[in-house]
Amino acid sequence: MNAPEIIAKAETLHRGGCNCAQAVLATLAPLYGFDEEQAKRLAAALGSGMAGMRLTCGAANAMCMAAGLHAGADGDAKGLAHAMAVDFEGRVGHLLCRDILAARKTDPVPKTRNCTDVVRTAVEIFLEHTQE
Question: What are the tens digits of pLDDT across the range 81-117?
């Protein structure tokens, strides 16, 4: 898959019922040999800002998890994830779910699926930072 197809898949998963974290991880993890359903299960509790608590954005968390898949256990996953998180905050404006939603003045109910653009941004950042 090329970058536009990968991004489109994440958007489709999010619009289709996956939470933000699931949409990002289920799109990126298969690039590293993980099954899409495994990725959805791993990311299930991260949506709506970690367990629905509106803390760190689920899309950003999943992006950082995928950085670990890319860098490997012996690589610089933390450095890669840090660079991605800084980029994410710069583009989205915030890292916390509650701040993202407050800036949008939107209904924070997870079922509204109002962050597809944030999912797209997380996947775009991941792809930009991992291009060889």
Answer: 999 999 999 999 999 999 998 887 765 555 456 799 9
The answer to whether 7 touches 23, Cβ cutoff 8 Å, is no
Q: What is the DSSP string of 63-79?
A: HHHHHHHHH-TTS-HHH
Do 10 and 120 form a contact (C-beta atoms < 8 A)? yes
Q: How far is 115 from 81, CA to CA, in rounded Å?
A: 21
Nearest CA among 129, 8, 130, 126 for reference residue 63:
126
Q: Whole-prediction pTM value?
A: 0.93
- What is d(CA 29, CA 57) in angstroms, rounded to the nearest whole number? 18
Q: Around Cβ 28, how many Cβ atoms within 10 Å?
A: 26
Alpha carbons 78 and 67: distance in angstroms, whole number: 8
Using DSSP, state whether 111 is helix, strand or coil.
Answer: helix
- Nearest residue to 70 (alpha-carbon basis) of 11, 114, 3, 129: 129
Q: How many domains does the chain have?
A: 1
